[in-house]
Amino acid sequence: MNKLAQFLKSGFKSLKRERYYALLNILGLGLGIFCFLLTSLYVKDELTHDKWHKNAENIYMPQQIFESEQGSMMLMPSFAIGQGWVDEIPAVRDYVNISSEKHRDYIINESEFKTKQLVFTTGALFRIFDFSLALGNPEKALSEPDAMVISHEIARKHFKGENPLGEYIEVKGIGTYKVTGVLNPIPSNSHLQFEFLVPIDFTKDPYTGLENNWQFGSGYHYLLIDEGSDMEKLSDETLAMLEKHTGNKQAMPFRFNKFSELYMSGSAMRTGDSMFGGRKKYVVIFSIIGALMLLVASFNYINLTTSRSFARAKDFAIRKVIGASKARLIAIQLGETFFIALLGLVIALIALELTLPSINELIGKNLSLQIQRDPSVLFLPASVLVLVMLLSGLYPALIGSRFNLSASLKGKSPNSRGTVIRKALIVIQFTICTGVLASALIIRFQANHMINMDLGYNTKNIISIEMRRSGLYDKMQTFKNEVQRSAIVEGIASGPIPTSGGAMIINIGEEDKVQQFFGYSAADKNFINIADLQIVAGNSFANVDESALANGVIINEAACELLDLSPEEAISTKIPDSEMEIVGVIKNYHTSSTKSKIGPQIISYDEDQLSNVLIRYKAGDQDKVVAHAEAVLAELGYTEQLKYNVIENHFENAFKREEALISIFDGLTIMLISVAGLGLFALAVFESQIREKELCIRKVLGANSLTLLRNLNMRFVLLIGLALIISIPITQYLIGSWLDAFPYRIDSTANYFILAGGVVMVLAIVMLSIQGVNSVRKNPAEVLRSE
């Protein structure tokens, strides 16, 4: 206890003696620890995703994959194959089918709510996975057709502590279900999340008629397989089983993806709101961010501490005189570092608790420091405290313990053998700062480049109404005729904007045919005109003879390129292995966000395949045209609220990740430059105090203030210049891999490096000048009096 009291007393004395520098140290380390803890929570959450199930390493999700140069397509395994695996292949112990998440409206006590996570499945879910029930029997909870299991959150939201078992919930469009179970809270690091579980019903979509179907399927199969099974053998056995039941030889092999690796491999095939979840590159990015921030903060502490060491030289000398060993002096310095790091950790934890809700919303995660949810979280702050103490305190402690006893007691400044190390730390800090600032600028301008790109068609003043999903398909033509009567409607059509329809596989080549993906969708005669698409060769459907419309198609330039035809050569040419004849070629346009490359498109004139209605209206009349469309639908007997898509705004959400990255790098840049600026300031203070007498002698000999400032700070400017030179190739290499993922990217990054370097240099010069002016203004008589 005496040693602890001495340690606390020494720490408080250090804070009291140098309040200003202690505050800078605490704030600097607090920022570094805050960023490190935050990124550590993110990385831990990502790397432990789905691995908490005891069977995680033996659960597999099968996929049948078709791959081509244009990408890959996952085919849903047929539904009947699930039970076939269990019955006919010994290595498969159990299976479960889980549907994709459904957006549904549900009613409780006559109040209507919405859910994004209604899932169809079976009771095998509880045998294969470690999802458990707080209420109900997992073996029977989904055994009845009208049974329903609800999440812990839904139970708490709607039943407020009451037992919900036996209560009824109506799901619009499906039926009424009785609550038979309540799930325990599902850990946030699970890509399988549910609010409602209902039994698979072969009389209802999306499973209608699939019970014994070996051709088509719905949902995702998860298999529990014997440990050590041969996956290639399992794939061969699966193909043989399919051929046995369908009579058709299977050309596409099965891939069995390990469940514990689905999330990080990007094969989970689930929807979700995680902005940076399930992507290895973001685990690497945020790991680097956390490590860099902690390094910069630690380097800053080293510079601040060593720059003040000469002021404490007599303190160390006196301790040596009264018998303190070198180890004792090192322990004292490490103790003070630990004390300051502890206060920085407290500030970081408080800041983390206050900001985590906003950060979770920004990155789409559910990170938490709640120890009761995950006791291992306690290891993070404890380990970071020890790490910071060793990283930040060891070097200053060694420097302090090596001061010359005689020179220190005579009032001489300690030697500056550590100058090279301190300057190296400044170079590293500003290399990092420049790189992060340049990266922030590049991310910002790349996002703006993609957002502002021309989509290839006129997006202004068009809304799209999906008719098939709204149950209005049979009234589409009547609806279009009635809407067209209004004077505020400039035109009406159907066609593949803002997104395309389906896809088809076409064999390309004369001898060695290669299967390729083509986008495939339908449009009417007015589509080209309404979308304001540019005809490169041939005609639009409106200008083609009726006799040619049955098999006539329009393709884009990307399709021409893949077919190895010029636009002019393509006209009147048939699509390989089909009766489709090309009647027109249009300029490429985007049917997905500009983050994806424009693919080959085939547009047919097939009124039976039309699914949407596009309404072009006069500028400023959007509300009027929506009201008009609602009135027409009401006359046709449609009572639901009209759901429509504003074409101009359709891809706004596609760039949320880039916008979030911009916010993250903006905050990181501010923190890094602030902390590194403190380190630069500390080194400037140290150098000016060591060279104080030299500057005064120069001043007596006639040097003006500008000359003294240049003499004092030029070496720092050169150090920062060196940091800029080092930063450029490293940052270009790292950010270049991020940029390469985009098919449409900014032309050059040179301007952003110049801008980032200029900003860093100006800020550094301003900071150096503030300290330098104070040094050169000192009265030489007062400084030299002690000589």
Automatic annotation (TrEMBL):
Keyword Repressor: no
Membrane topology: Multi-pass membrane protein
Main localisation: membrane
Source species: Roseivirga spongicola
Compartment list: Cell membrane
Entry keywords, A to Z: Cell membrane, Membrane, Transmembrane, Transmembrane helix
Domain called MacB-like periplasmic core: residue spans: 23-237
GO MF entries: transmembrane transporter activity
GO cellular component, one term: plasma membrane
Keyword match Lyase: no
A UniProt-annotated Pfam family: FtsX
Transmembrane regions listed in the UniProt entry: 20-43, 282-302, 338-356, 377-400, 420-443, 660-685, 716-739, 751-770
Name the UniProt record assigns to this protein: ABC3 transporter permease protein domain-containing protein
Domain ABC3 transporter permease C-terminal: 288-403, 669-769
